[in-house]
Design a protein that fits this description.
single chain; two-stranded antiparallel ribbon; 9 helices; mainly alpha; Arp2/3 complex 21 kDa subunit ARPC3
Length: about 210
């Protein structure tokens, strides 16, 4: 009985948290979005390079995924803030870089993908209760990582490199080195997302 009581409290706490977030006024939502932009910038500093590719493995993806899960569509806004403030000169891109010049470098497409992924995750999480289960969250985050982030990154890198690389070379440089690490990050992020999201309606979801 006591275990069930704690489980019920946990379920109520996460439901109340997301309902509170959903009903916040615009100013507080902007503040939350800014806080997740800062989190993404902080996680960006956890990075390492794989030999043979100029694109590093970073912790940014965690910030992107969590922003979408925790803030809904405002998670996408947080990533727009991340890019905009970084472009303006705040050094919170990976390696404490900043500026438009950095954004037009080899990783520019991945940065754009962060915005797309956060908006997509946020929309699905806020609109579909069933998507918050482990299978749904895993599929959503996998799609966000390997389609919404990888593809813009691949296309951008192709033009940045001077359109001299073939598809095999592009995939070898921009995708294959990161698959294992990103799979692990996606599974962990899906597990976290599943555990913190309520399995009942808080936002007049389509399937509630």
């Amino acid at each position: 009985m006591e275990v069930n009581m704690y489980i019920d409290r946990y379920k109520n706490a996460r439901l109340n948290l997301f309902k509170w977030r959903y009903e916040l006024n615009y100013m507080n939502k902007i503040i939350l979005a800014l806080s997740f932009a800062f989190l993404t910038g902080l996680l960006a500093q956890f990075r390492f390079y794989i030999p043979g590719t100029p694109v590093p493995v970073t912790g940014q993806v965690f910030g992107v995924m969590l922003a979408g899960v925790m803030l809904g569509l405002w998670g996408g806004v947080s990533q727009v803030m991340y890019l905009g403030i970084g472009a303006a000169g705040v050094p919170w891109f990976q390696g404490f870089n900043s500026g438009v010049i950095y954004m037009t470098g080899p990783t520019g497409g991945y940065l754009l993908g962060f915005v797309l992924a956060a908006f997509f995750i946020g929309y699905i999480v806020d609109r579909y209760v069933k998507a918050r289960k482990i299978v749904g969250m895993t599929l959503i985050i996998m799609f966000s990582t390997f389609v919404l982030i990888y593809i813009p990154g691949l296309i951008w890198f192709y033009f940045w490199s001077g359109t001299t690389l073939g598809l095999v070379e592009l995939v070898t440089l921009c995708i294959i080195p990161f698959i294992a690490a990103d799979l692990i990050k996606a599974v962990i992020a899906a597990g976290i997302a599943m555990s913190i999201t309520p399995k009942t309606s808080y936002a007049n979801e389509i399937d509630s």
